[in-house]
């Protein structure tokens, strides 16, 4: 797998880079927690806290600012979060950046990478709105909270006081529990225009 990934990017003239795993700063995303460790031998002569990277994003963006051009990295990432079927605190991540590419070109490249590495079928693409209408039977850009609650009940989403959730949470529950199980089974699926802009949501 690693050999295939490296050959894929080499053929496209994307430079492989390696950045530090430890940093004096940590992620600013409030929903991601980092591991920290104490370093006793800093140049300042005092102990300081270092953080294991949650992704190589910040270091790689520094390279982009230094005019590195297109780059990729296969590295370890660490997140201090709940362990389970879909999460391990240490995992391997592939991250790459393509200056000058728009999101459609990036989707094309992800699709080509998946076909190269996993022998997948060509991907499909649906807008967030079309996916909701196809699999849930409602238009997420023009729907009342009452209809969202009714759809949650119809699809077996059994939670306490669903009417107290905001629109965003209702939509996300329906998407994760109803739409996601239906997509990507025969071929990868890109969901476009996701999430919808809040100005479209009911007040």
Write the CATH architecture name of the largest domain: 2-Layer Sandwich
Strand tally is: 8
Oligomeric state of this protein: single chain
CATH class of the largest domain, anyone? Alpha Beta
- What is the count of structural domains? 2
CATH topology of the largest domain: BirA Bifunctional Protein, domain 2
Please identify which CATH superfamily of the largest domain we are dealing with: Bira Bifunctional Protein, Domain 2
Give Rg in angstroms: 21 Å
Describe the global form: globular
Model description:
The chain is built from six helices and eight strands, in the order αββββαββαβαααβ. It has 203 residues and is of the alpha/beta class. The protein folds into two domains: 2-118, Bira Bifunctional Protein, Domain 2 (BirA Bifunctional Protein, domain 2); 124-200, no CATH class. It has a three-stranded mixed sheet with strand order 1-5-6, with helices on both faces. A three-stranded antiparallel sheet has the order 2-4-3, with no helix packed on it. It has a two-stranded parallel ribbon with strand order 7-8. A hairpin with an 8-residue loop joins β3 (36-39) and β4 (48-52). α5 (145-154) runs parallel beside α6.
What's the topology here?
Elements: H1 2-11, E1 15-16, E2 22-23, E3 36-39, E4 48-52, H2 57-65, E5 71-78, E6 90-97, H3 103-118, E7 124-127, H4 128-135, H5 145-154, H6 167-179, E8 189-192
Parallel strand pairs: 1-5, 7-8
Antiparallel strand pairs: 2-4, 3-4, 5-6
Helix pairs in contact: 5-6
């Amino acid at each position: 797998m690693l050999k295939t990934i490296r050959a894929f990017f080499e053929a496209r003239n994307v430079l492989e880079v390696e950045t530090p795993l430890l940093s004096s700063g940590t992620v600013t995303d409030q929903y991601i927690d980092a591991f920290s460790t104490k370093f006793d031998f800093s140049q300042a002569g005092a102990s300081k806290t270092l953080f294991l990277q949650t992704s190589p994003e910040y270091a790689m963006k520094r390279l982009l600012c230094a005019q590195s051009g297109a780059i990729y990295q296969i590295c370890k990432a660490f997140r201090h979060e709940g362990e389970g079927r879909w999460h391990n605190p240490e995992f391997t991540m592939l991250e790459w950046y393509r200056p000058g590419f728009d999101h459609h070109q990036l989707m094309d490249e992800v699709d080509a990478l998946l076909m190269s590495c996993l022998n997948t079928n060509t991907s499909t693409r649906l807008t967030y709105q079309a996916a909701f209408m196809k699999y849930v039977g409602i238009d997420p850009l023009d729907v009342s909270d009452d209809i969202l609650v009714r759809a949650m009940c119809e699809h077996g989403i059994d939670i306490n006081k669903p009417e107290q959730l905001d629109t965003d949470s209702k939509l996300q529950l329906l998407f994760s529990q109803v739409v996601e199980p239906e997509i990507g089974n025969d071929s990868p699926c890109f969901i476009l225009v996701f999430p919808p802009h809040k100005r479209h949501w009911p007040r």
